[in-house]
Design a protein that fits this description.
CATH topology: Rossmann fold
Radius of gyration: 17 Å
Strand order of the largest sheet: 1-2-4-3-5-6-7-8
Distance between the termini: 15 Å
Number of helices: 10
Strand content: 15-25%
Largest sheet: 8 strands, mixed
CATH superfamily: Alpha/Beta hydrolase fold, catalytic domain
Structural class: alpha/beta
Number of domains: 1
Helix content: 40-55%
Order of helices and strands: HHHEEEHEHHEHEHEHEH
Amino acid sequence: MKEISVLGWCLGIILLAAACSDGENKDDFVDRMDIEHEGDRPVKNAATESENATGVSGEDVEYATVNGTQITGYLSKSDGAADGGPALIVIHEWWGLNDNIRMMADKLAGEGYTALAVDLYKGKVAQSPDSASTYVRSVNADEAFDNLSQAYTYLSDQQGAGKVGTIGWCFGGAWSLQAGLAMPAEIDATIIYYGRLVTDVSELSMLDLPVLGIFGAEDEGIPIEQVKEFEAALNEANVTNDIHIYEGADHAFANPSGTRYNKGAAEDAWQKTVDFLAEYL
């Protein structure tokens, strides 16, 4: 199994610090997310009811201890899954580790992956944009990286995963990319759904893994111009990538429990996600 090196740990902290100063600070970005999510709510709807996966089993597991606090995530596996199969670190949106993210972990398990939905909020789950904004601002980068590195170790060592990828939405999309940057020798594939981006070629050149990016054309928090700059930087850094921008889709368009759900775009993005994972993980 791969082990996270001290050098990788230090590099991750440096990259995370750099990302928080790459043209804007964290609060500026969260301010934009406040606007994008204005009036939004994590609510159940017909889409969530139809997304339930079959043939999978999920349970809450303790996968990390961060600053003395035990962290509980949600582990989902297909029934009868063999040891040594591929796994995914599943990173929640700014709402936190809620039922929607558990459902997404179950869907990924239904595709044959051991899926660990991590918790970067230490048990807190938002019910409104105001509380979500507060939780995002409270996340400490060092602690988040420690959390994600222990998630990798849990999947690699305790679950016997041969390969480990990352996937995240919104806040989690940003951390999916950051996990790849911080653990380039460990992570085997990264999927970003409308998360905060890094466009510095020298930083992206650290990636030794393929990247799938999913974005909405109407998302002003992650504007198209920045997405295109990200794609160009990945290409210049010789990083294998597949970037998709969906016309008419807003931020959080793939969240069936939100008010901005776009069924057509979400279903196409999911198929691209499944195909990408089948090819690289």
